[in-house]
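cron nightly-structures :: item 1 of 1
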Amino acid sequence: MSHHLPESKIPAPCIINTGVVVNKLDMRRLLTDLGRVRYFYTQDGECKSDGEGNVMEVFANPQRSTLVANHALYLNLCSFDYLELKQSPQKETYFDLVQEGSRLRLIPLSTPMQERDERCLNVSAIEAMMEQVLSARWDAEIDDDPSDLF
């Protein structure tokens, strides 16, 4: 006699603005496009360090460290057990990376849309500059062309 339990399909979590994220891939997706942040590092409720910086890299590698120095944050998700997604009373989202008695709070100073717009503006400015450089070079080549001499 065989007993088969019905397969129960549990839907994937849906987290909107607040909740706990344990999946490293989901944590990475949330943190990768943070850009500039204000951070607070606490141990056992006592603030040990705070400042501002740019999130440079988000990765999961048990052989590497999370590093915060020189206004740059390199976040190793293996340094943390989970991420708490929260909102301030002003409805601004922030992220707490938690591991035992320590917590790294990241408060975004820009939104992903602002970061994307800034990158697009930078690309547009570079393209415009390159167009001017190439145009000036072509003008110089035309001016130096000996076939124009009579």
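cron nightly-structures :: done
The first strand starts at residue 19 and ends at 21.
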